[in-house]
Amino acid sequence: MTINHMVWVKFKPHLEQSEIDKHLSDLQNLKQKIPEIINFSLGKNFTNRAQDFTHGISVILSDKEALQNYALHPDHVDVAKALINDAEVMALDYEF
């Protein structure tokens, strides 16, 4: 079954916009670097319903094995480590 890997991001308040832009660019670039990604979208939250989380990411993958490969891919690991240093991150994965 296909997997939707969803991530919510809340950047720390002290970050400069240029630092946030770098994180967003690095995240966007994952879709060219990781072959398991079927579809990737990233956007800024525009409502007050997400407990101050500012951005959302949706990564579509073919199955649980592809999710595991994505999670362990060195480019993803590097981007995720950097993001976790500068933001609160919450993830959810579901099959559809």
Would you write up a description of this structure?
By secondary structure, the protein is of the alpha+beta class. The protein has helices at 17-33, 64-72, 74-86; strands at residues 3-11, 37-44, 55-61, 87-95. Helix content is 41%, strand content 34%. Strands 2-3-1-4 form a four-stranded antiparallel sheet. The longest helix is centred in the first third of the chain and has 17 residues, at 17-33. The radius of gyration is 13 Å and the shape is globular. The mean pLDDT is 98.
Task: Please render the helix and strand layout as text.
Layout: E1 3-11, H1 17-33, E2 37-44, E3 55-61, H2 64-72, H3 74-86, E4 87-95
Antiparallel strand pairs: 1-3, 1-4, 2-3
Helix pairs in contact: 1-3
Provide tags for this entry:
96 residues, alpha+beta, Alpha-Beta Plaits, 4-stranded antiparallel sheet, 3 helices
